[in-house]
Amino acid sequence: MAAKKEDEIMAEYLLKGGKMLERTCRTCGCPMYEYKGKTFCVVCAERERETGGKDALQKKTKPRSSATSEGTGAVQGETGTSVSGDTAGLADELVETIRDLCARIRAEEDPDRCLALMDAVKAGSEALQILHHV
Q1: Which pLDDT tens digit goes with each residue over 92-104?
Q2: Predicted pLDDT of residue 35
Q3: Which one of 21, 55, 93, 95 is CB 3.0 to 4.6 Å from 32, fit for a cystine?
Q4: Could you say which of 27, 56, 85 is where a domain stops?
Q5: What percentage of residues in the chain have a pLDDT greater than 70?
Q6: Residue 63 lies in a domain
Q7: Domain with 93 in it
């Protein structure tokens, strides 16, 4: 059985009474929904159901870096430059998001969507560079 398209999944939840929210999913980029008192990404939930939860097990996130034992509050970023403790968590999130976007680009068949994802990677990379200079 073929997997449902993202817009088909979202349309189903709208018809069921779900409310499309302004926020987007960090994993797939689709709008988040409020349905039966819960807020979640209906596309990711449907994909997880289709694969029987296998994707969720494969996408476990890596633990975040912690401050160094010397108590300086700095951690090593991806590029080897030091990032202050205040921005280290944000830098780690950006790196993980960029990795997720790159994985989506590799799997994307729609050239327009691929270009949009590539723009997001560029913006994330620029933000990461700015954080490393803070």
Answers
A1: 777 888 888 888 8
A2: 93
A3: 21
A4: 56
A5: 72
A6: no
A7: 74-134
Whole-number Å distance between alpha carbons of 85 and 45: 34
For the segment 70-118, what is each residue's pLDDT rounded down to a tens digit? 333 333 343 444 445 566 777 777 788 888 888 888 888 888 888 888 8
Look up the pTM and report it: 0.42
CA distance 22 to 32: 7
**Residue 90: how many other CB atoms lie within 10 Å:** 14
- In whole angstroms, what is the distance from residue 76 CA to residue 52 CA? 37
